[in-house]
Write a structure and sequence with these properties.
Radius of gyration: 34 Å
Keywords: Membrane, Transmembrane, Transmembrane helix
Distance between the termini: 116 Å
Shape: rod-shaped
Number of strands: 0
Helix content: 25-40%
Order of helices and strands: HH
Strand content: under 5%
Length: 65
């Protein structure tokens, strides 16, 4: 007959393949690269780029007194 105060030890063994989470890290890196490429391709539509007009004069006059 078992006493109420007796304890039973239970051990659970979990086997893994040892690969870790490299698949998840690779997926995140690829997602970041795809987002950056899409932002680069559509930068004009998103307002990040555009034509910048820079006017440089043909000559500059300098008066030294």
């Amino acid at each position: 007959m078992a006493d109420e105060h007796d304890t039973n030890d239970r051990v659970t063994i979990v086997e893994t393949d040892g690969g870790g989470g490299s698949g998840g890290v690779l997926a995140v890196v690829l997602l970041v690269i795809v987002v950056l490429v899409l932002l680069f391709l559509f930068r004009d539509q998103l307002g990040f780029g555009g034509d910048t007009d820079i006017n440089i004069p043909d000559k500059v006059e300098v008066n030294v007194n």
